[in-house]
Amino acid sequence: MNRKIRKYRAIEYIILCYAAVLMLLIGPLGIFDGSREVSGNENVQGKTAAVTQDARIQQVFIGDGGYLEKISIYAIQNLSRRVVSLTVSDELGETVFSRRVALDTYEAPGFFTIPVEFQTVQGRAYVWEISHPEEAVELGYQQTADAGIGVYGNYYFMGSDQKIDEQVGNNIIMRFQYADKLSFLQKAVILFVIALAAGFSLLLVENHARKRKITRDVKVQWVFKGICNPLITAGAIAGIAAVYPFAYYGGVKADKMVYTAGIHVMAALLLYVVNAKRDSIAPLLPPLKETVLDRRMDWLQCIFWAGALWGCIDYVNAMYNIYQDYAYRKVLIYLCLVLLTMCGKKALFHWRNLIWLAVSAVAGYLYYRPFRGIEEQDKLAMLNAILFAAAGLVLIQLVIIIWKKKTAWKQLSPAFTVLVAAFFVLLLVFRNTRGWPVYMVTAFTLLYIFYLSWEKKERFLGILCNGIILNFFCALVFAVLRRPFRAWGYYRYNFVFHTVTVTAAYLTLVICALFVKLLMQYHKSRRLHTYWTTALMFGMAVSFLLMTMSRTGYLAAVAMGIVVLLFVSLLCYRERFLNFLGKTGLLVLLILLSFPVTYSAVRLIPPLYDDPYIFELEANEEEWAVHKGDKADSENYITFPRFAYCIDVKLFGEEHSIVRKFVDTFMADSGAEPYAPGEDRLEVNGMSVMLASSQETEIPELAPEGEQDTDAGTGDSQTSADGPSDEEDYSNGRFEIFKRYISHWNLTGHDEMGVELPDGSLSVHAHNTYLQVIHDHGLITGAVYLLLGIVSLIQMFRYALTLRQTGRLQDREKPRDDYAALPLAVFLAFAVAGLVEWLFHPCNPLGFTTMAVLAPLLTFRGKKKKRVNENEG
User: Fold this and answer.
1) CA 555, CA 832: separation in Å to the nearest integer?
2) How many CB atoms lie within 10 A of CB 786?
3) Residue closest to 511 by CA, chosen among 768, 849, 272, 857
4) Which of 169, 581, 693, 808 yields a CA-CA distance of 20 to 30 A from 591?
5) How far apart are CA 638 and CA 647, in angstroms?
6) Is the peptide bond prior to 612 cis by the omega test (within 30 degrees of 0)?
7) pTM of the model
């Protein structure tokens, strides 16, 4: 950042950056895209018969080929805050849109508006139908001949006798709002003009510099200041304006305070990073050669680790066997690619590998061709073909490794290796019809062998840690754009998953990686601009975990955090106690400041992007669900008083209202009433049906082994808006489940994963990793599993101690694994969360990573004390 360039060059870079920003805003972001309204003469000439629970009205209209966003319908009575059902069908009778809508406030007689969001076909006839209003309503109609436009057809009334009465020559008074985007040609012209203006400006700067012979230099940071400061300031001002003067997002005082805090904190952080004084002459971004070309295999391995975790996410989100099969193959494919990056460029690009790729490509195509076009089997066959090619390359490299004796077998820790091998053997012998133990043993045995032959073992944990962080960053972007924070039904934020249990386990894993990296970076430099990205993502990961309201996640993250913070800071880095307290306070402050940023991001950005991703299990047409086209101030999005109420009920019980009292005392409007679910602005009927994903109706085609995760009957199920129904039992029935699983213990395990509970229901898994291993594989395997866990934990503490700095010259010169605490952090989180959840599976993100971090322990033996003969010398 302190490196210098010519000032005129700096000005040219600023011009180019602003031109690129303008092109982005006009092109992909479409800031000039608007909407257009189609309406005719609105002369009310009568009112229809009343639409009731047993009567409905249909209206024909002609689409003009645009994207229909809203339909406004003229009503005689006031249905503000009431619910109606609207369905749109095409001329073939197929439904193209359907949902129940809680109407916004309007003055009657007048128009109420329903967001519809679907693409019309020009000239095609559509029919909308209004039915099942909470209160009877009459609609205004006019003679179609007087409407002034030709898009209206007749309307139909269907009474309780189901007789359809066509009103020839009459139509309901209505308006249509279509998206009005700039055409491709219009955007191309505007972008060309911007590019032309930027080019002309560059020529002027070049000409001026040449004539004046300007040789003045400026720092690179000056360029970043000139580009970023105005953009950050403008973005913050626009955000605050949307929250306060324009009230674009609605909300009460508490909401606006949180949004404002989030915008201010984010803007302040970015401004600090851009403007912070830097003593080093190192650039903001290191040279491309150092970061990409010299470490390209490391970057590839990082991407492949992230891809493997993406496959794990797909697996735990899978609702059907076929989707789990897809996910399995994704995990294995990416793991194969990870192994190949450990082989070196020369081995990887050898002629024999090219021959295998050619042969496997032909064989894969011949295998795939019969399945092409067949639903579901098409994708599975393609993934099988890719896995076949990747596995073949791994097998070739394995043969070379063994043949040339590249594996450093002598480096293995005998006792720990034998223990891991014994557990793997028992897992296979007592797998009891399960397929996943075979996948797990094969995959991780290969990982350990390739790790032994790798010349860059010291990079393994760092690359894995960055892969976890990269995966989280991609998930974070997706969630902020397409996973809104909902107020009803799914008020516990489930990130990129459909259940909060797997969300909490995944976020705990991410927190482990970010925490270890943050401690390492903070130890090297205490200047925020050197580690701000890690700090921000760590704070956001913790904030997301808070929003899940998962006690399991809280317990695992807090236990891991306390142990790692104390052990690494005081024993490994040997920090002074006052410095340790200061760092602890800084971590707490970081989390407090990150929460409004995270909360605001998932509340403010999704309505702008307006393309929510809804899992099949979450899909619902009810009025309380979030849909594409919902207004940014819709009450279906979370509000801070609602969040405070839910977290109070979930964690402390409704009678305490700890968070709620804070909101009412410091963040509520002076005239606002304390929040109570029965008095909320949006009264939703049937709130008791708003259950978590796991409490939906039975799901067909689930994995027969019971591998699909579920929250049913646990403390992490999303309950109704009135709070948990099981407040009496803080364990949420887990103790009873534990007893039932213990009563089924034997030496060899069971074929079936679940057990029947006293009430006749099936507990799909034990909600305890240790009990589940014993149930599935028997007491013998379970005993070895527990022993392996204890020994692994000891090994991880010893391995983390290699971070300790003694000050001796030989210790300073010896290469050290900066991420040596990662196995400890991951294993602690896994062990604690495993007390109340089932995590031991190769496609569970936390379970997968726990097996991966065992690799360095296989070769770790600790420091050997050298005996010195005192008589020598």
Assistant:
1) 7
2) 13
3) 849
4) 693
5) 12
6) no
7) 0.88
